[in-house]
Design brief:
By secondary structure, the chain is of the alpha+beta class. Helices cover 24% and strands 31% of the residues. It has an eight-stranded mixed sheet, sandwiched between helices. The longest helix has 16 residues. The protein is globular. The protein starts with a strand and ends with a helix.
Length: 167
C-alpha cells in the first residue's frame, strides 16, 4: 500500500531502508521513550511504512499501522528529530487511520506510549484517538519516567465516523 498526504509519501518499509532505520534508532532523543529494546529492524515487516518528505525526497521516519487481529491495528511513529514539530506525525497518522477505516477493514486503532511522552500523546489526540488507560509494566531496565506508567489510546471506527460526520 502506498499513500500520499499533502507533504508525505508513505510506502512500505523495505530491507533497502534498513540503514535509514538504524540511523534513526541511533539518535538517543528519538529513542528517549522507547529504549534499546525498541531499536529492532522493522524494514520489510508487515504494517510498517517509510515516510518520505515530498518536497525534498528525504526519509523522515516511519509509521506503524500493524494488524493485531480482529480488525484491530496498532499505530506508531518514529521521526527523525529534524522533522519534529512540523505536524508530520499527525499528518501521517491521520492518513493511515482514514485509509484503514475507509478501505482497510480496520475496526479499532490502538496506540501506546509512556505517560510522560507528552509529544506523542498530543499526536494521538490530534489524530482522533482518546485516552483509554494508564498501566504499569514491570520493565527489567526501566527508562526515566517509567514510574508514571504507560498509556493506551484508541479510536473505534464508529467514533471515527461520528467525528467526521459520516453516515
Amino acid at each position: 500500500m502506498r499513500l500520499e498526504t499533502d507533504r508525505l509519501i508513505l510506502r512500505p518499509l523495505t530491507p533497502a531502508d534498513a540503514d535509514r532505520v538504524a540511523d534513526l534508532n541511533s539518535d538517543p532523543e528519538v529513542m528517549r521513550y522507547l529504549g534499546d529494546a525498541a531499536a529492532g529492524d522493522v524494514a520489510g515487516r508487515e504494517g510498517y511504512f517509510a515516510a518520505v518528505e515530498k518536497a525534498s525526497g528525504e526519509f523522515t521516519g516511519w509509521f506503524e499501522f500493524r494488524p493485531l487481529g480482529g480488525g484491530e491495528v496498532e499505530l506508531g511513529y518514529r521521526l527523525r528529530r529534524r522533522f519534529w514539530g512540523r505536524g508530520y506525525a499527525t499528518e501521517g497518522a491521520r492518513a493511515l487511520i482514514t485509509r484503514g477505516f475507509a478501505e482497510g477493514g480496520v475496526e479499532r486503532v490502538v496506540a501506546f506510549t509512556m505517560a510522560v511522552n507528552t509529544g506523542s500523546r498530543r499526536v494521538m489526540e490530534k489524530s482522533g484517538l482518546r485516552y483509554v488507560r494508564t498501566f504499569h509494566d514491570d520493565w527489567p531496565d526501566p527508562l526515566p519516567g517509567a514510574e508514571h506508567g504507560d498509556v493506551e489510546y484508541a479510536l473505534a471506527k464508529d467514533d471515527w465516523i461520528r467525528q467526521h460526520g459520516l453516515p
